[in-house]
Amino acid sequence: VVVLDTALTAPLAEELAKGLVLVLLWRARALCSRVSGLVYGGAVGMGFAIAENFCYFVSTYWQDGLVAWESNLLIRTLFAAWMHVAASAACGLWPGLAVEAPLPAWKQRLAPVLGLGTAWVIHALWNSGMLLAEALGEGSFTYHLFAAVPLVAALLLLLLERGLRAEANGALAELRDLAAEGLIPADEAP
After folding, report:
1. What is the pTM of this model?
2. Best label site of 9, 115, 160, 178, fewest CB within 10 Å?
3. 3-class state of residue 28 by DSSP
4. Cα separation of 70 and 61, whole Å?
């Protein structure tokens, strides 16, 4: 029961909460591209991590004392925030991409569901990896430092690089159109 809760149920509940904020931003038209979805999603994830960490810090201190609080502070501050940022950024990517790309309305409405699913998978894998590391006798610190955080950071960088590349290509195409219309010099477009 604890394993299912940690690996599946808690990630779903947390990603639904963060996803609701992103849906509100999407409906308010704040998400206008995949990069804006990544950035807003990352910000929502960081805000969630700050609030969640505060609750963990207080309860750990009161239940287990100062030494446990120090350990909890280190692990949650250095590592847990990464996962929340990455999962929420991936969640925001899909609605941002739906706005950016000319898609039929039904596909645009599906984007938040795809975002939520992606975020849930990232979060569930993170928590499952942590449970597996503990079951194998590996420390949570080692798992986070050498496996989880590098993978999540690589995912974020890849998504951001691809998004920025797509935006740069779109801007170049628009500048070339302006040059073709004679509105800017042709050598200025690139």
Report:
1. 0.82
2. 9
3. coil
4. 9
C-beta separation of 93 from 37 below 8 A = yes
CA-CA distance, 113 to 94, in Å (whole number)?
A: 9
Rounded to whole angstroms, how far apart are CA atoms 188 and 190?
A: 6
What residue has token string 């925030």? Answer: 81
How many Cβ atoms are within 10 Å of 129's Cβ, its own excluded? 19
Q: Picking from 111-115, 128-132, 146-150, which range would have the lowest pLDDT averaged per residue?
A: 146-150
Angle at 133 between CA 129 and CA 134, to 5 degrees: 120
What is the rounded end-to-end Cα distance, in angstroms, of the chain? 58
Phi and psi at residue 120, to the nearest 5° = -65, -40
User: DSSP string of 166-185?
Assistant: HHHHHHHHHHHHHHHTTSS-
Which token pair is 119? 């975020």
Element (H, E) at 148: none
Over residues 132-166, the pLDDT tens digits come to 888 888 777 777 777 788 888 888 888 889 888 98
Contact 10, 65 (CB under 8 A): no
Q: Which two tokens stand for residue 53?
A: 């960490």
Give 120-142 as a DSSP string.
HHHHHHHHHHHHHHHHTT--HHH
Tens digit of each residue's pLDDT (9 = 90 or more) over 51-110: 999 999 999 999 999 998 988 888 888 888 889 999 999 999 989 888 888 778 888 889
